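Re: that backbone. Tokens:
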């Protein structure tokens, strides 16, 4: 049986499900198959009144990845807010740069803290290689500005997600945009000094440690390479001419 035949069987099972439990099972099986042909059905499942099925559909769409993005972006303008919220979660998990504007808007303005949190995390996992090289630094700067704002969100779970993304971005731009990376370390210290939530402050400490580890590796890596090169030039005992 090829993927197309399997997809049709699994899609039919979703369409014919006559109870919440059967719908959940059918969507989970369809999502687990990871077949691109299933994207429309998985997206439709985001709008069902079945949170378990929606979670499974999001996981399946994330696993399928880039091919699901155009259809997800079309859903963003749909009147069904619940489906839109699940679509944003899927886009955040995929990390496709085509969803950048959607993630910006959702992270800054969506009334649902869970949607803002998902969008904030998505801004930290964007696939930069999808951008033209000449645009990468400017877009990274845009993302930084957004995350600095989001890190002041009134909900601690959103601030927590913003810290996670700031850590990833700081490591990503450490060598290409050192001044902007310094802004991140400064912001993290401000959060550590001022945030009222222990969980957020603990996450900041972890982020600082990861950033410092990366900086340490970058400082000592050239030295290690040089030392290795020097050692390789020293003849082994017994080597050379006698």
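Recovered sequence:
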């Amino acid at each position: 049986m090829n993927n197309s035949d399997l997809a049709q069987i699994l899609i039919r099972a979703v369409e014919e499900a006559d109870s919440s439990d059967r719908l959940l099972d059918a969507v989970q099986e369809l999502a687990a198959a990871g077949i691109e042909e299933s994207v429309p059905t998985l997206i439709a499942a985001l709008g069902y009144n079945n949170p378990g099925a929606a979670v499974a559909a999001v996981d399946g769409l994330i696993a399928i990845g880039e091919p699901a993005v155009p259809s997800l972006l079309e859903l963003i303008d749909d009147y069904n807010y619940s489906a839109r919220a699940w679509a944003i979660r899927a886009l955040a998990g995929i990390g496709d740069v085509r969803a950048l504007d959607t993630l910006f808007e959702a992270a800054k303005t969506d009334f649902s803290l869970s949607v803002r949190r998902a969008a904030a995390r998505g801004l930290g996992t964007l696939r930069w290689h999808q951008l033209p090289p000449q645009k990468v630094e400017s877009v990274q700067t845009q993302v930084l500005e957004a995350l600095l704002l989001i890190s002041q969100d009134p909900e601690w779970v959103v601030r927590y997600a913003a810290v996670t993304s700031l850590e990833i971005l700081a490591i990503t731009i450490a060598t290409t945009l050192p001044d902007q990376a310094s802004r991140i370390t400064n912001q993290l210290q401000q959060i550590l000094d001022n945030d009222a939530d222990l969980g957020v402050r603990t996450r900041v400490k972890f982020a600082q440690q990861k950033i410092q580890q990366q900086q340490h590796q970058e400082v000592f890596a050239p030295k290690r390479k040089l030392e290795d090169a020097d050692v390789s030039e020293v003849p082994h005992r017994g080597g050379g001419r006698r």
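Residues 198-233 form the longest helix (36 residues). DSSP finds twelve helices and no strands in the chain.
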